[in-house]
User: Fold these one by one.
Assistant:
Number 1:
Amino acid sequence: MFSTNRQCEPIITESKNVSAWESLILDLSKSTTGEDYTTSDGSEEKGGFHNGRASSSLPLSSRGGNTVDKMGQKIQRLPQLLTNIHHDTKSAKASNDGGEKQTPTALESPSQLKDWMAYHSTTYAPHANHMGRKMDAAYTLKAAQIALSLAKYLGRQFEQEQDMDMESRREDLPSISFEDIVVDNVIVTNVDSEAVLESTSSPSGATKNNGGVNTERRQVLALGMILYELFAQGTPPPTRLQQTLKSSGRILSFGTSLRISEQSEEEEEDDDDHRGASGGDRRKNKDDDDDDMDEADQQEESFVRKQRRRRCDEKGGEESVSKLLKLAGVPISICKLISDMLSNRDDTDIGGLFQCDKSVSCFADVIMDLEQMVDQPKDFLYDTIRLNAKPIVRNKLYCRQAELEQGIGLAGRCAMDASSSVKQEVLMITGLSGSGKSSLVNELITQLKSNGWESLHCKFDQIGRRQPLSTIASAFDSLFSSLLSTENTWGSGGSDTLGVMRTNLLKSFDEESFPILFHLMPNLKRVVSTDGNSTDMQTEYVFDEFAMIPSKIRLHNLFYELLKAISSSWNAPMLLFLDDLHWADSASLELIAFLIDEMGASIADDSAPAVRSTNVFIVCTVRTNEVDNSRDLADFLQQIRSCHNVAFTDMALQDLSPDDVNVMISEALCYSQRLTRSLAGIVHQKTEGNPFFIKEFLNDLTVENLLVYRFSEKTWEWDWEWDEELIESRTISDGVAEILTRKLLRLSKDQLSGIVMLSCFGSEVSLEVLALVKSSSGNSDIMNTLDFLAQARFVERSDEKYCFVHDMILHSAQGAVDENERMIIMKELLQALLPHGYSDDTILFIVVDLISRVGADRVHDSETRLLYAQLHLTAAKKATNTTDFASASTCVKRGISFLPVGHWESNYRLSLGLFNQSALVEWALGNTEQMMRSLDEVFNNANRFEDTLRAAHVKVAYLRMSGNFVSEAFAYGFQVLEQLGESFPAAPDNGIVVQEMLGTKQLVTGSLNESKLRSLPEMTDSTKKEAMAFLEEMLRCSYQIQSIHLPLLACRMVRISLQYGLTKSSCVVSVFSDFSEGYSLAKISMSIAGSDQDKRVLCSMLTITYAMINIWKEPIQAILPQLKDVYNMSLKYGLIDNALSTGMLHTYRALFTGSLLKPCSKEVALYMRNNLERHKRRLMHLCVAPIFNGISCLRGISSKSGAYNVDEFITEKHLAEALRNKETTFCECMLAIKLMCSFIFRRLDEIKPIARQYLELFERQGSASAQFINIYCIFYGGLLSLHYYRESQDQFWMDRAEHAIQKMEVWATESVWNFENKLFLLQAERHYAFGEMDRAAEKYKLAQKSSKKHRFIHEEALACELAASFHVKAGNVKFVAELIDRAVNCYQTWGAEGKVKSLLLSP
């Protein structure tokens, strides 16, 4: 950078017209716009300043301000010099103001700085600034860039010098001069590697007394002198200033060069007459006593004090550095910096005790100022006049770069190609109100959108709770509105996004789903409607209140499918921003949790590449102090953290540090960080570094005239002034709320009433609603008032609505008037909106919210109270229809609070409606106690039986679904049916059941075919319709407890349907002993169910038909994909219980059919996770767990319970406990798995006691047993019984075997495919037990052949193994090896590695 050796290598060829230094300046100009250049090794570096052998842009340990070094990073070697020289075809028009000098036609490269200044001082035409002075903006910016490079280099050299031991420091250091400064095309370079850029310390050693502080101050002073001449375009500092510096012990000579050097000891002695007796560069610490100084020292100190004060006050125009620079056309910011650098002079040994407060004595401050000037020249370098005398806090992030980069990194994981490590990313940003959470996310969205991302913004509100799920639904609706308004230009791909989205939506939803979504998102209908389908599309939505849970899950599934359709239409990642999630209602939290869970569950777990169903990055913001205050939010966060394949990241935003506050204030005032540091310290102390608080606090200071931007007649400059003592003495007890309240109270009466009225609606309100209340609250024109408030930045208008700029303004507006005045405003709003609440759901929920905040205690008119109660009941029903049961519960409770005393007598229908609705929603929420209280209210006060039926439905459903009160539900249901005219025997015997089934069979067979059944009319008898609904519920109870009433209930439903017509419950099938007739009836029932609009009935019918009926007639392998389709359909429509039941049936069928064990294990694991973790179905989980453990046992791996074999994970204790809890299905499932695995692994002695006890038990139950598993209990029980009979000749075992063979013979006549091989194997074992060896050998062959033909690979392996064992006993050894090999191959293909190992190890 500086050189004592002028012979520089001609690295760069010379230019004819422009020097290589000009090339540097052009590059530096690019660096200010963020352009990059490439170093010699090809790596990219940000534009910056570089020294020839070391970086001039290394960051210093700054004591204040921005520590980010934007001028470059650490570079340890000489970068390749630019080889391209910029040419200029025109000769430089060189003349100074007097026209005396001629500009050289070209500059050599490298060139001396004095030549560079001479060239550039005449290249650009000067112009006048607002002060009338001449200023060259281009030269000033380039000079500032050079100055920044010099300051960084000097600072780095100084730090390196401080790190050296005192003994190793060089005593003879070269001096600095303008002639030594050589200009190169990369930067001012130091050609001589031995040169060190600092003023030479005195060899007297006096400097060592104060260490590096004085040394650094002297170097800053020397740099200030160089910068003076640099910015003054070669004009040297005034002679008087040189003489002043000379008196302090330095010789500074000016002319064609500037040389700064320390005097030697001999020169010091010669100069004593001029300086007094203080001597050389000797210093005293500023804490030393004045008594140690002699009279001459004291006189010298007095002189210095006067000089300092005179310089700090800039008195004496000829001596003022700042004024001289201003006259030379230097910008005020540079004038201040150089003046403050030169005001740190140390004229005696006092050590800077009387320095000016603004003096600059360290390189960090110099670099801080120059960086701001170079990076933001418009605000910090050039002379500009502020048109606004208030601080303007910029809309940018301060001290959030690390958090922003972390967010971008998490987003990158969402956008990455699918891999096995992919997870659904969720980022939660927490912080206090005003900490900049939303600003951080908005900046993240801005950066992601520049890379092709899309975004969806949902902002929740504490006040003004609107229609349930409206926050999320309105975000989607706004998206569709934007898409329609911009047509094909919306989206990142530039394609027909609207057309692609329409196609995806039509593929994703059926005609029954659209009405539900249209109800929540009106613009969706415009998106999917075309000329061809707009008239055919159904728009009416009918809610089934007795299928609330399925409706809720179905709605969640619809949102998930909607998110998938949108994501796939964009073909780009999407950020879903959930702003102020702590204000979200419980329904919204449940929906969000479902979406996150589904997105995580959709990612594959295996080693194959993961496939995303959606490409969504979810970001939510939460106030730190609200997490513990909201139980719903705490439960939500716990649920999300436990979701499968979901990566949850917490990001806590801290308050800004004092340095960050200083940067923020400096840029708000366009004032140097060095000068705002003291103010920033006070502001940080008052605001604790809260960004929003800082902004409002600065504005408040200007209003109170404690921070003023004014013109000084003394300096003829505009400047900021503040009184630190007054600012520091201010007390703010209530934080930013106190400041905002004072700000609001300064508004006029109309403006204040307008913003208070706006706060009654919450954070935002639509223009449509405002139009209805425009004359309320004594405000003649609310729209003009809001426009003024928008100009004052209290609110902002966007997308046909007004919203508060910040939530803290909203809360301050609510507290700006007393409670009585606020109540008056809300009542006036109610009167204006009430007439519109009956026809508009949005207005209805606004009205109900206003009523709830007014409160029942403030409403005394009886008619008004009844009106408000009715409105709450209407809102509760609508909230129930959108599955927001929590909001519905709140509406019902508030509605009940408006009822008068004796309301059952005076307002019977309204009371009945409120308490019925209360029982319904509390049941859906699981609030049992409140539900029972509401049910008791209905049962105790109803005038007739028919008025209790709705409550009776809730009670039966609750008892049945609770799991522990099924018998009680069964008994209560029969009581209700008795009153509805449908009686049943309390304990029917088999004769009654058979007689009823035969009678019903005659009705539905013969002449009554499918066409006649389908032509039956719709049922109109209300009593019979209620009876059918209760019969369906009782049918489910009967199946759960394996009651003999099940066929009686089914037959009664058939009879009522044939006599009175069809309902949605008419499609239930009763299977008679004739499988063919049952199979035919099942097809008819599915046909009828398929024509019905109730998917609940259809899914239930399909499950029963495929899993319970078709197995007797169709190949079981063909049933598996059908069951999987029913499982997915049930999930889609929210039928969780039916889906999980179907999934359980599918897993058992898959295992016993011989499906490959490894993929089967993954499916079972998914079902288990759905049962227990996602849907909390314990009984279903218990039924599926034996399957998973059995598969693990067969594969030879440890199960999740740690058990390796069947004896460990299924014990007699488990079976007995299941029976004791009346969990018959679970008990039979465990028994089937235990029998199968024990027989396959030949653990026959361990299973014998259990087989003896439980086989007979389930045999006695007959048709009441669980048919989907009973087949395999009979099959493996029969094989075990024949083995035990061969050993013991116990007739008990032969009876069990004969029962099994008889069953298989009957079943094989219905389906040869499913049962023939099993029958052959049982018959072979029976012949073997009776010693009929030839017949046994033949049956073994048939069993092997049939198993292979019908694709039961596991049973083929079993047949081969049993045949091998038989031939060993028979002495036919020649067949054994082949049979064992076939068995091993089949077991290996099946995936039963555990069995293979045991088989190979067996003798």
Number 2:
Amino acid sequence: MAAAMERSLIEICGFERETASRFRDVTVNLDLSPSPGGVKYPDSAGGFYYEESGKLLSVTSNRFIYWSTSGDTVQLVEQSLDTNLLNNAVRLKILHCSLLPGGVHIQETLNNVIILIVTSQSIHCMVLPHPSRMYRSDLVTELQMQSIFTDVGKLRLQDPAHSYLLSGALGVPTACPSTSAAWLSHQGEAHFALASASGGIMVVTLPPHDSQGTVSVVELKQSSVMQRLAGWMPTAIRGDQSPSDLALSLAVRHLEDDTFIFALCQDHKLRMWSYKEQLCLMVADMLDYLPVGRGEVKSSPGQGHRLRLSFSASTGLCIGVYLGLPKRGQFCLLQLVATENNRYSLDHISTVFSTQETLVDFSLTSTDIWALWMDDDNQTVVKYINFEHNVAGLWNQVFVQPLPEEEVHFGIDQDPRETYLDVLFSPLRFTASAIVKALQIYKRGTERFLDLSWDALRKEVTLAVENELQSSVTEYEFSQEEYRQLQVEFWSKFYACCLQYQEALSTPLGLHINMATSMVCIIRKGFVSYLLPCFAVDHLYLSADEYLFSEDETPVAEDPEMGRDVLQLVLCLRLVSECVQGDMAYEMEKALEHLLSPERAAEQVLDSLLANDNDNVIEDIQNKLQDIRNPTAAMAVLLREMDLETDTEAGTEGLDTGRSLSVRISLSQLYGSSVAVSVVCQAVCQVTMTRALFCRDLLILQQLYLRLGDNVFLGGGVQLLQLQQDLIPRCSHLLCSYYLLKHVSQSLSSSVPVDALDANLQHLSVLELSDSPAMAPSQTVLNPQTVVELFYQNVARKAIVSQIFSQQDAQSAQAPLHWPQMVSSVITLLCQLLWPSNPGFRFPECLMGNCQYTQLQEYVRLLGPWCQVNVGSCRFILGQCYLATGEGHKALSCFQQAATEVEKEDFLMRLVGAENDEAGATAPRLQYYNKVLRLLEDVGLPELVIQLATLAISEAVNDTRSQAALWTRIFKHHLDLGHNSQAYEALIQNPDPSRQLDCLRQLVVVLCERSQLQHLVQFSYVNLHDEVVGIIESRARAVDLLSHNYYELLYAFHINRHNYRKAGTVMFEYGMRLGREVRTLHGLQKQVNCYLAALNCLRLIRPAYAWIIQPSPGAVYERPGTSPKRNHDGEFAAASGSRQIEILELKDLEKEYTLARSRLTLAQHDQSSAAIAGSASAAEMVALLVQAGLFDTALSLSQTFKLPLTPVFEGLTYKCIKLQYGGEQTQNEAWNWLAANQLSTIITTKESSATDEAWRLLGSYLEAHPSQNAQHHRCVINKLLSHGAPLPDWLVHAYKAVDAAALLRLYLNYDQLESAAELVLEYVDALLGKGHQYFGIERPLSATAPLVWLPYTSIDQLLLSLREGQANAKIYDKLRAKLEEYHRLVETSSRRRLLNQ
């Protein structure tokens, strides 16, 4: 903003937007009865500022108290511009006691803040803690602080220590005091100077609050000094004092060791009393300073006189006297001068005249008089004047905020309801309390609206008016125009009600001037407003005509000639402004809102003005234009003053460079309270509104210049060309800029749910912008905030304060905080931060960080056609908005448009610059695409990721690394979307082998998990065949066999490519792992199927090639990423040597299949044995099968692996023995395993038992599986004999026909002597020819037969055993005889054989 400043000020109202009352009510009951016909005092207000409120490092920095009185109530509010104060407002109600005008006096001590209150019947002293004692540390870092009023409810204000009743000393009631003054002595005593209605001044003194004492009362009068310990002196004994010396206004000042009480009396005289001496030291007649009319004034008593004091070290004590004379008023400025012998006189400094009627309040500083009036139209008037150096006597202007318009203008295309609501809830027009009161009246007081949010209040207003409208409608049908008229009628009624209450709340009560910071406030009935310096351009546009005529120069132009041209041009602009009202103003507003050409709209407005120039205003303007010597130069000066464009971004310096911690903390809080935020941002709104009107009128005037052409241009065509090509476009651009700033300064922010803020923060962290100060979500205090307030509070304030104080030296922290200078700088820098043509982009960043998407979209829309700065950044931000609202395709379009500006704009460069160092070689645009792709991925829009990545690839022609990353992204999202073919195509296009391999691995895994194996097998995998096989193999060996089917996939992969040997190898390895890892029935079943598949594969190959390589034992494969193995000592184990390769042929696979099949058979018979059978060898499996009774399977397995059948026969024999001696249960259980074995024959002739069937099975096995020397029979017999079981006859007959000697030995081994003897007898008989066929003897003993033999060793052993036992004597003899007979026959046969030879 322009540096040129004027002496005028502008009022900014700090409207609250909370409906809930912030006041805490405290009632003081003094047990007084209301006085009959009590005096009605006018409402009043005032303020107090802390001595150190102008010091940055003080806890009371920018802190003050203001108060207002009404009837028996006083409202006290402590306010801070830096920190939000809690419990800072209290409403004190003193029953039946009216507050005197100006009856509140506040002073501070080192430890306390003392509030002295004077009412019609009492005085009060409130002792509150000083802020510096509430917060001992200088480092106050809280965002909120407790006010001194926090514990006011704990004070017992009716106690004698805090209050005193002004009753008559003898019990006689006295008249109420008319005015008062109060002060605190150095000893802590509270003194109250009271002027009674009948004259006289009484001084009531309360003892110090921290000590015991009595109340004293002193009466000051000219004849004598009387003192009583309590109460007022009755009027009857007071002496000869006439009402003429009634004090209308009192003031007190402590000088040196005395306290002086100044009384401005009804007789127009100023009296000065010494409290120490209790004497009147001086009487001065104020009429002496009246230039004319003293006589007529002197005869009438004064009524509206006011008195103020001001003290400064340079000028001493100044006394300001306002003489409220009929139809005129004047201020007399006097200086108190001390002479010899304790005498005093007054020196006249200045007399200032005023024509205003009703003075509300005035304040006096060391240089200025500030006055507050109400004019005849009840409009507030504030002015100030320097009483020392103002020769012309011209007051400086204060542009007071006018009341809202009495009528709301809206176009035919606008909805009346929305228009009225926008006006009512605009941040600048109505307070929440005015709307709430109007709503209660409108609803006839049926409800109380407390603690409503701003949005809720808006809804309540809408419902109230609409319900009223609906209830008044009696007809069911009426036209749209009739309904519109009804809306206007009811909404205007409610609006008038709001206007009435807003006017009441705007009633001015007093002025507050903070001498420490030079801040001036107007205290109104419902709110406090602040006076800010007015910038030069705004001053020119807002000033009254008489002020413009009186100005010979202006700060906007150094050259006097140029200054006069500028003033003349502004006069013309004011005439244009008066003409452009109502519909024409709306047309210009609508053109800006709808992004139409401002120049074209100005032409149309000018046409309307020319067509309806009934008052010859345009002619007056033309006449004034003739007086402007160089209009283009004057326009250029004004445009330059309004242009806020800067080359650098504000607030780039940090707060912590070379400053102490306390200074940094204080600067971080400066102007950070909700009040300061509201005032600063409403000032920005006011400035932008004024500037927008200024630019509008200037643009219309420029169009008029074009129409007039050479008639007003002395320079001819050159100036006309400059106007057309330079000045009009610049003015149009400024108009659009200020309209935009006006719009955003009035746009309310939206409340955002916490989850939306969290989601937005996640998106910003993806962009690596979450640490940016502009992106930090707000911790709002105002409810609701405008978006500019949101920006200022969270981002702009710290940047602005940083820039202001970075330009000052280290002593700047000790310098006073000068409010006019500071707030002007703050407003200037804030406007520059908001200015759309500046390079900074913090405002849109802040809106994005706080999820203000609707406001941000409108901001970008209004920028679109005319702003050429940060175009790409705006598109990017708009894309963010579309993402948040679910319009992904629009967002993608915006992101693509922003890409062209990546290397040109700071925000986008910062966005790209956040990439890591590895991306240094990547083009900025590709880095930008990467950020956006991450954002789209985080939001969950894979289709848009694919589109943008495809676009990015076209720009990464020479960047293989970026291409690979982009193709990888495309592959990933195609795969996630189920676009398998497109994912495969992206994989093939990837130029990076490692990324290609990663994608391939992911493709395999995902398609397997989705069971989309058909796609996986059918892809061609050009140049990637071995990699695919390797990936599937590694996955197959790495994952659980039951949850994934990678082996089956690999088998299908090889079968599809007719690679049968590989397919067989895969299935054989699969079967091996199943047997080792999945020892369940299901696993065994799959193992059998795997071995079958492997066999089928090898049978499809020519026999010469029907072999595979044995997979490594244990299935231990080195996989990428596995940790190295260590030995017991923790050392790395040595790498195992190359293992020997083993070739497996078809027969080897068949053997494995048989073993697997037998395992399955066993598991099917007994599932509990599956875990054991899974790892059992062939020999172990035979034992397990025999144990389970699966003898057929056991025999088959034994034959396949060429194992002895002995275990099978022994096992079956044992089961037969168990059946032989078992019970019925054993018989029943036997049928289970008998059924699992196939018997050779079936006997149907008789019922067969399980035992019979078992023996039959054994017999069939012995018959089907003959062995050398009948070893199977022998093992069976051995088993039977070992268990003491009798030998079946069929078994004995079968074995003795093969090997009778072995049978004999078995009998002897088990001590079966009788059976052995019987066998020997039979065998001897067989040799002798009796039953020789049963022993396998072809020819018995004879001379011609072959040689025969007997097992003599066994027979001798038998004979020995028989001989030793007495019980076997007969058998022994019989056997002995048989042997002797045999020997005889052998001898005979031998001789015959010898003879025959």
